[in-house]
Amino acid sequence: MNVIVFDISGTLMEYVNMPNVWMDYYDSAFRHVREKLGLPLTDEQLAKSIEVLREYNPRVKYREKDYPPEQIFGDAAKGWDFPYSLEDVISAFFEDMKLTPLIYPETIPTLEKLRSAGWKTATLTDVATGMPDSLHKSYFPELMPHFDLYVSSQSCGFRKPNPAGVHYIARHFGADEREFIFVGDEPKDIQTAKNVGCRSVLIDRKNRGLNEGQDYTIKTLGELIPICRL
């Protein structure tokens, strides 16, 4: 069985005007939570909540295990001595980020061609710290019908380059993961492929010249087609 696994952000789409580090959003997002929900959240409590969220961020403290949003924000709000709805807090927090998705123009045509040629398409994507999987998927609803299987760090419980997500995909399709092709834009995507022994494709839209030992380097998704015919 031919299976191709895609990272999502930076590979199939991007968030317009998003800073490189999600932590840049934390202060503004918690202030939005305070204002929108009318919570008596002091600056000291806000600072402590930001620090807890930072500690969960894998760029600050490396981790491969992922945690549910309820646990992350529950810990961030532990010092709040007033009633609040955790669901509303999470919603208001990410609402403030005003993420604007942009699907790359060649993404859907490429996915259509691959599936027409008999390839099974799956995702393996790391969800932002504390973001509900349902919210993550809501940013690209037009992509979802083009996947045979959606897997994220939330749904499999581990972040890349941990191979757990690829193992999950292999079990789902009853396929040999060593025969997969893994496509992504970051070093961890290439390392994930190495960890399971499959072919790797680095998409380098910004000409960064990254060399992570990938099998192929492409500039646009359309360049996948001849690779998948090999």
Summarize the structure in words.
The protein has 230 residues and is an alpha/beta fold. The longest helix is centred in the first third of the chain and has 14 residues, at 43-56. The chain has a five-stranded parallel sheet, sandwiched between helices. A two-stranded antiparallel ribbon has the order 2-3. The two termini are 14 Å apart. The protein contains ten helices and seven strands. It has helices at residues 26-37, 43-56, 69-76, 86-95, 107-116, 133-138, 153-156, 164-173, 187-196, 224-228, and strands spanning 3-6, 13-16, 100-103, 120-123, 181-184, 199-203, 216-218.
Secondary structure blueprint with pairings:
Elements: E1 3-6, E2 13-16, H1 26-37, H2 43-56, H3 69-76, H4 86-95, E3 100-103, H5 107-116, E4 120-123, H6 133-138, H7 153-156, H8 164-173, E5 181-184, H9 187-196, E6 199-203, E7 216-218, H10 224-228
Parallel strand pairs: 1-4, 1-5, 5-6, 6-7
Antiparallel strand pairs: 2-3
Helix pairs in contact: 1-2, 1-4, 2-3, 3-4
